[in-house]
Structure formats: structure tokens, C-alpha cells
TrEMBL record:
Reaction(s) catalysed (UniProt annotation): fluoride(in) = fluoride(out)
Chain positions recorded as Na(+) binding sites: G69, T72
Name of the featured protein: Fluoride-specific ion channel FluC
A Pfam family of this chain: CRCB
Biological source species: Glycomyces luteolus
PANTHER family, A to Z: FLUORIDE EXPORT PROTEIN 1-RELATED (PTHR28259:SF1)
Organism phylogeny: Bacteria, Bacillati, Actinomycetota, Actinomycetes, Glycomycetales
Length: 120
């Protein structure tokens, strides 16, 4: 049952990542991988919030492991960063990694604090 919950969450999270990237790229352009940054930061904050706020293992499997796991993307971050390096854009590659890490950690801390405020 847990595997089905994870797969269901991932079936929603992966298209959400793809669509978010399309929308963000439409407005911000593709000079930098803004869509990946948005999903990684948002997904990190949401995942930590849910880990703290949701006690049920089934809901955690569906939302945290499935949805947030498919929404966030370390593989795309790696690929896009390597593409920036290949293009000779080292400073953009370093900024991309730093922004994803700092943004994800910051969002995680925010999600942690928000969950504790709401859940008590």
C-alpha cells in the first residue's frame, strides 16, 4: 500500500515540476534554471513542514516521499549546473548550486518553524 501511495504522489509531483518549469521559464526566461530553483526551494519547505505536521505514515508517504520527492529534483539541478559549466558560465553554475542549497535549507527552516507554530 505504501508503494502505491508514493507512486500516486509522484504521479502528481513530477508533472507539477514540469509545468512549473514551463511557467517560470515563460516569465523569467531560460538564461538561468529558475524553474528548478523554484521547485527545489518550495518543495524543501513543504517537505519539512509536512514531516513535522503530518503524523500519519500513509499521508507522509503520499505527500512527502511521493509528491515532494518527485517535485524536487537533484538530478535536474546537477544536469543544469553542468550545462552552465560546459557553456563556460562558472559563476552562474556556482550561483545555481548555492541558491538551491541555501534556498532549500532556508525554506526547510521556515517550514519547520511554521509547522511548529501551527501544530504546537
Amino acid at each position: 500500500m505504501t508503494l502505491l501511495l508514493i507512486a500516486t504522489g509522484a504521479a502528481v509531483g513530477a508533472p507539477a515540476r514540469f509545468l512549473t518549469d514551463l511557467v517560470v521559464a515563460h516569465y523569467a526566461g531560460r538564461f538561468l534554471p529558475w524553474g528548478t530553483l523554484v521547485v527545489n526551494v518550495f518543495g524543501s519547505g513543504l517537505a519539512v513542514f509536512l514531516v513535522v505536521a503530518v503524523a500519519d505514515p500513509g499521508w507522509s508517504a503520499l505527500l512527502v516521499t511521493g509528491f515532494c520527492g518527485a517535485l524536487t529534483t537533484y538530478s535536474t539541478l546537477s544536469y543544469e549546473t553542468l550545462r552552465l559549466v560546459e557553456d563556460g558560465r562558472w559563476h552562474h553554475a556556482l550561483w545555481n548550486v548555492a541558491a538551491n542549497l541555501a534556498g532549500g535549507l532556508g525554506a526547510g527552516l521556515l517550514g519547520f518553524g511554521l509547522a511548529h507554530l501551527i501544530a504546537g
